[in-house]
Amino acid sequence: MSAGVDLRLAGVAAGVWLAAIVALYVPAEHGVLLAVGAGLLAAVLGWTLRGRWRWIVVGLLVGVMCGAAATAARVTVRDSPALTELVRDHATVHMRMTVADDPRPVRGVTGRAATYAVPVTATAIEVPGRLPLTLSASVLVLGTDPAWYALLPGTRIVATGRLAPGRPGDLTAAVLSVSGPPDEVGTAPWVQRAAEALREGLRRACAPLPASSGGLLPGLVEGDTSHLAPDVADDFRATGMTHLVAVSGANLAIVLSVVLLIVRWCRAGPRTAAIVCGLALVGFVILARPSPSVLRAAAMGGLGLLALALGRPRAAVPALLASVVALVLLDPALSTDAGFALSVFATGGLLLLAPRWRDALCRWRIPRSLAEALAIPAAAQVACAPVIAAISGTVSLVAVPANLLAEPAVAPATILGVVATLLSVPWPGGAAFVAWVASWPAGWLVEVARTGAHAPDGVISWPGGTGGALLLAVVLLVGLVATRRPAVRAVVGVCAVAAAVGAVPVRLAAPGWPPPSALLVVCDVGQGDAIAVPVGPGRAVVVDAGPEPTATDRCLGDLAVHEVPLLVLTHFHVDHVGGIAGVFRGRRVGQLLTSALPEPVEGRRTALAAAASAGTPVSVPAAGWTWNAGPVQLTVLGPVHPIAGTTSDPNNNSLVVLVKVDGFRLLLAGDAMVAEQADLLAGVGAAAVRADVLKVAHHGSAYQDPEFLAAVHPALALVSVGAGNPYGHPSLAMLGMLHRQGATVLRTDVDGDVAAVSDGHGLAVVRHGVPPGRHPP
Q: How far is Cα 71 from Cα 65, in angstroms, rounded to an integer?
């Protein structure tokens, strides 16, 4: 590490960050105790310790004190007794609120959003028969009317809906479900209206362009992915290029670099350069909308260039650390935000690693421009890799070369896109021409992403969660240290490869669809379940039908399934029965198996009507019921007993099915939650639920019994979950439990349709298709 790097604030930043994470998950009084304890300990150690460790330890404790105190204050507001009581009662309320961020669609797979998630700040709540409640609390609105998607941040609205609890670990005090449009809608601030006019102008300029490059340009300029083709989005994600289509420090760095170059070409001094860069920064924030995510990116992306503009390049690292402290204290929820972590680590990698690697390459007589081109994407990828592994359970082997090849085209496409945006209002024709020119570098980015995404074994599985992140961080750290000593490079390389191989218990097989020797296929149907178990050519058992017919029919059609001898509906929630018409579409269904609990009534009515119209017999199996077809044996393990009085009785009475085929055991757990999982484990024993493949219950929610997961101990865990769902599925803690057991975890929101196959050497997995329906209409 260079002697010129100032890391005096590193301890404070780490303390604030870690304390905020802890304090978000505990009651406010525990956060206060943590703050008081850290403050007292800092005072004692500051008085007694001597030497270089004194201020490192004291700084860490001061950070813990500040982070815990700030977070506890916000948790106190979130958990205010008056609001908590309303949430607990699922009260119907009349709420006044202000839109806090862009609405986002929570989709099915037909291209039409079923629900719109709108972050708001609630300012007043009225309940019949009670005094009005004045407050300032974060609330997530789930609205089904398209009018919710048209709202701009800063708009004041009034709506009536029903309250439900928010998810743990953030500052959302409640979820408000609204069946219709807002009751009242105010006028958005002029800044937001101006930003929307520019964004709409860029979309119009890009409309005549090819779908791939035309949909990419708005993402490059201001993070608008509403028209980004699903296959392009999937390719960008697989090659580690997703940061290009999100509002990040990279977008700002490109814009500010050009502004700084122009200012210095005009021979302006450091102070003038700093002022002009600051104005450009404000303008970009207005363009991309000053939402929390944009402000975070502005703080991260502008630090290095502004420090350079002021003639103080060494101030970049302290400024980064100070911004981490300030942002987390202002918004403790950022401490658990993956985007925030990626922003911090990417910026840190560029400031700490990239210069050293560039200089090292220059010593090998590599031209400086090429050295920088190599060092920048490598440093950013190495710094972010542990976070990406924790989120996705994968490590991209093509990210660095893909970003290296993409780098020459990013700046031209971004700058031309900004110019087209600025011209779109006063001169639409000129904007369209500039957008056409920008489509050429944008097209190159699309080709790079497509080529990288289809490279054989370009992405490998890796343990996710905190354990996987720490494992990869250790491997990378050891590798970085080893590069300083040539004698140990070979040993470290062998160990790194061995660690990588050992972390992948299930091989990623070559693509091909439908996959031969498939044991089961978990279909990507959005936020719901639909599973196919092949039992012969053109025949498959189907377990659950997804939330709507088109996606289920598409998946079965891709698998060439023409006959369904057995259809199992684990329970009657709409995300499991809503697509039943897609199963019957053009197929003969021999028998329908359903849960004994006839709730929800509407879901049961839909299932029985579909069976009746096709003449399919319906039966309710008891635990132990078995069914055989060729090499497949299916057994209903649970529910062992009827379960009542839980937070979700339909979920806790889900049919839990064990499938045996070709020597493998596959456990399909429906939406069974902790109550049913514990009852099942007690009723049939750990040996009965042991499985090689687990379809994780309830879309990977946090409501899992650790003892049940330990008893199943799968080599492969498959999560059927919808992209961008408002429920926080899948739970990172749950994914961490599976990874710590050595399971390979794949998710339909990331991997599309997923098939577990027997390849003659053991279990393998094949991924297919693009996760559809996650872009606004």
A: 10
